[in-house]
UniProtKB/TrEMBL annotation:
Biased composition (Acidic residues): 1104-1122
The species this protein was found in: Cladocopium goreaui
Residue ranges annotated for the Endo-beta-1,6-galactanase-like domain, each copy included: 129-298
GO molecular function terms listed in the Swiss-Prot or TrEMBL record: hydrolase activity, hydrolyzing O-glycosyl compounds; nucleic acid binding
Protein name: Endo-beta-1,6-galactanase
Pfam families in the record: Glyco_hydr_30_2
Record field: compositional bias (Low complexity): 1126-1140
Chain intervals for the UniProt region annotation (Disordered): 560-582, 1045-1065, 1101-1142
Gene3D superfamilies, per the entry: Glycosidases, Ribonuclease H-like superfamily/Ribonuclease H
InterPro entries for the chain: 6GAL-like, 6GAL/EXGAL, GH, RNaseH-like_sf, RNaseH_sf
Amino acid sequence: MAADEEAKETVQVSKKQALQLIVATSAKEKELELVKSCRSRWQDRAEDTEAAELLSYGPGAPSLEAEALLRYPPARWSGWGCSLSWLGKALGCCREAESWADLLFSTRDVPVSQLWPNFAGPYMPAAVPGLGLSIARYNVGGCGRPEEQTGHPYGGSKVRGWFALIEGFQPVPNGEFDWTRDEGQRNFLHLAVERGVDQVELFANAPMWWMSNSSSSFGGSLAQPDDFANYLGEVASQARSGWGVPVRSVAPFNEPSADWWMFPHDQEGCKVNSSQQARVIAKLRDELDQRGLSDVVIAASDENRPDQAIRTWQELGKADVAGGPSGSYVGCLNVHAYDGLEPWLESRHRGFRSALRRIATVAGVPLCVSEHGNADSSGVTLAQVILEDFHYLQPASWCYWQPVEHHSSWGLVEADFGDAPSQEPKAADLPHPKYYIFAHFTRFIRRGMVMLHCSEPWAAASFAPEENSLAAVITNPTLGTSKQRLRLSAFVPKGRGSERRIQAVLTEPNRRRLFVPCEVEVQEAAGCLELLVELPARSICSVLLPNVCLSGTESKSLVESTSTNMDGVDSPGAAQAGKLRKHSHDDQLGVTVQMVSSMARAAAEGAALERWLGQADLQTVRCWSRWEHECGCAATAMDAIPPALPSADSGFSDLLEAVCAAAWGADVTVKGSKKNVAKALTMLKVLVAFKEAASPEERGLCHWFACGFCRDGQEGEDGCEAGLHCSKIISETQANWLSKAPKQDEVSKVKARPLLLVVSCGGAGPPMLSAPPGQATNGGPGFSGPRPAAGGGIGCPEEDLLELCMVAVDWSAGCEVSRFHRFVRPSMWDQQDGQMRQAHPAACFADKPVAVLFPDVLADLLDWLPRMLGVSMDEMLPEDILFVSPRDFEVQSLLPRRCFQGEVDYNLQDFFFRRWCCLKDVFREYFALPNEAAPNGLGSMARYLGLPPSDKVRRTFCLDENLLVVRIVMELLKKGWKPKETAWRQAVAAPTTFLLPRRGDLPEMEQNGRKRGYWEMEAPAPPPMEKIIPKLPPTAKIVGATAKVAPKPTPPWQRPAQPTPPWASVPPPPAEPWVEPTDATEVGEAAEAEAVEAVEVAMAEPVEAPEEAPEENYDPGYDETGESAYDPGYDPGYDPGYDPCAADLDGVEALQQLLAPLGKAGEAETAPEGFE
């Protein structure tokens, strides 16, 4: 009984309190019961939040399960590496240089007596396993000698040590090159190459001292980009021909956009803006080509953070040097895994890794983590960063900064480099546990292995097809012992009864159990293999599993190509489709109907979730990972092992791109050899199956069609041929929702004040495009940049389509009165109408757009509201209505943003959006809950009130979400709640800060808001003379409207002065001014006084409304709905049990009918409808 009471009590416990209990190390029964209760409430719906990580890492956590999936296109691992730089200079000429090189670049065991003689003994480890790194990054220095440098040699007294003075090879301007310099680092580079390093990257932290505006390589800006490019080209040529090292790439920059490269700095560094980067890259490409180094690629730009890497790549793309239509001078996208000096963690910056990976995939360049380091000597943070990089970023290689550091826990090993070059360097202590953590990755996931994608970021796996072996690295991030299960769904034993000797080692940093053997169980279940291991808290295990192979290849030879039976074609369009001959792909290429069905289902779910939740959402990423796995299984049945990439003439870079392109409505042209055409036709069958399976509601509302024009020709009332929009379906759904409202003649006029307007807003359909679908444009297939909005949810930018629905509620009677629904199109699309009509034929435009402009929506509201209130428009007062929303964001920010371009009178804005009721505040005040315990999202609010969850709904419309809000409001009214305003907004007529929800409530939303500039944005002052009145159409038959618009009366905001209403008598507390933290500049008192003076001048003198600046800092991790940031339980639209393809794909018979035209030999082969 006591346990039951305790479990009930936990329902009232805040998430913060529960998490604190969960992460506690105590294992008392009472606390464990609380843990289990809290976990059961949040575990299913908290997958993509930091709280989810804590929930799963508490004591008594259940066994963790993950699956290793194939990646398509398959990717070979390029290797692990490190930067030489300081350690190379310090260790390259010392007595133990050979042993240090063995430790880093070989897999042999290095005896402790060689490097750590003071620690050798019977109770100490006999040897340390080598890391076996295969990539060495050589630091091309920029220092001259003291007698050569003028101005500020070495950056003054801030230099961290003699080892940080990396000498350059051109010490004086336009002088001769001296190749005898930097002897220590060059010697260590040769030692690395002798031990098998076959990939050398030359990187520059700074140019030569005389190429900087500070006359020093320790801070400043680049002053001579052409000389810098010539310098790097000459060093690359000397390294290749003179030193005989395998130079693979040149990285000319190191965190060039960072603001901390100010002279004097304690290490080499230089700030290089994007235009200078583009110039250096183009010039360097010429310099390399002129020296016969066309195979040496340029790697850029080694930014500190992934989000900055995205912005820099976009700027380089505009300069046509990276990922542009004319090709790319950049052959590798390098990025660092930092957040300043802290590690870059997914829980703090969600979605940036995935967005950067997409950019590299579209550009067709490898993505490499060229630097990371941290001060956590245990290695737990290092393992987390590597695994998150593998899971979200999927790099081709990964490099640590300095494995050996001078008295710093940033190193895997600490050493004493001495105070001067004359002192002999020596190891300071045995390697940190972090060293062994890194060895778990470097010694098991070896260069050349085919990378797998693990469904959870606590595991990594790779496969060596030539050796028939599989390696896996598994971590236990919890605070207690946990059973880990890794399912290898695509692998089976190689040869029955063959001997299998499993190699498995364990490292437990907290107990200093380093690289000790451990037991791992291998099971064969459901036709695949599973690894089971029980790991202590915060430990890591690496496993090498021999004698395994891909499923389907263990006992049969690969199917031969059928190229002799098909004519090769260059570009088979619709007219040329008859040249292709029919083949039974199920039999001859090894692709079964079940494979096609699985691929189609995964493609449909991935495309639908991407539209609903955005491309950065965890569920979307998982669906597309599943799709890649299914493609990989099919490719294994068609090709040799490992499955090869599609050839350059196949018409698409990979099958995932083809599916995405077709899912978004673009044409797919298939061309090339017989074999590639056969593959493409097989996949096009999947696309057709996807289109047939996706209903019009799941396809979403096409923004182009809703805004008035669409690239694809129309088919009557059903919209374009692509099937991505359907005005008839939309109108029917909208009318059906409105028809459920009470009849107007059955409802008496509302006498109680205020009338509650329960409002919900949401995006509709796929993200906006900046040009017609099918072209390589923003948001469309083939575009290298992130989309402007993640699925177009709450908080979508002004250029996105907005869905607005409201239910009017009489709070005194506790009943619904009427409903209101509109799709709102941005005015910018009407402004571009002329340009679009000039660029595209008339058949591409919708005559009657579904969406309307926001001023017209407000005009409809002014007609709708008086009829329910039983008053005329000029008699209506602001206190007669009260918006009710689950968040502050809708009324405080989202809807007013539609008015900011001078389209709506400022007094009218105040009339609608000056006050509102936030349901979170209602729960906090009415139930006397602390702020952190008050439910944030609809799901948690409904659960708090004991309401059942919402029904299955289509996320295309926010109608059902609105009804859930109405149910919550009704339940609150039954409990005696009296509606009143809980939040205010300052008058728009005066300059005012554009606020998001209260600071401290939603930290993640605040962070993203600051990035988008919301905190600094000021509402424009009203025009000095005339006021802008919304246009009221004389008559209108808009979809969903219940009556014609009444004749234009005197607007309520122009009536005689009224007494001050009670709610306005007490002004709301002013919001704290927000100052965004920055590493570049600290705003002083003088700047603050200047800003205050500017605001006072702006308030005293009316000014014209400034145009709103476009958003530059795109944040793919920011959930526009605002829900996931503070309530993982909220998701009224998405149902994880819902399968959008189940209705049409479960039947093999339907698929066989679909594939029948491709299965008859001797007939002309035609491309599926909708494709060329």
